[in-house]
Amino acid sequence: MTLEDTSLTSKEELNAELKALLQRAYESGVDVEGGFECRNGVEHPDWDVIITEVTKNEQLE
Questions:
Q1: How does pLDDT run across 14-56, given as a tens digit for each residue?
Q2: For residue 42, what are the domain limits?
Q3: How many structural domains are present in the chain?
C-alpha cells in the first residue's frame, strides 16, 4: 500500500479524504465499524478513531 503525500488544509478536505477511504474499504469488504488506534510515533499525536454507521436521512438525499 502506498500513501499519497496530500496536504490537507481544511476540515472539508479531511472529510473528503476520510469519505473516500471508508468507501474504498467498504467496497473491498472491510468491516469499517469500530474503534481504531492511530499511533504516530513521537513527532505526531496519537488518535483514537471510532466509526459508527448512521441511518440515512432520506429527505436530504
A1: 999 999 999 999 999 999 999 999 999 999 999 999 999 999 8
A2: 33-60
A3: 1
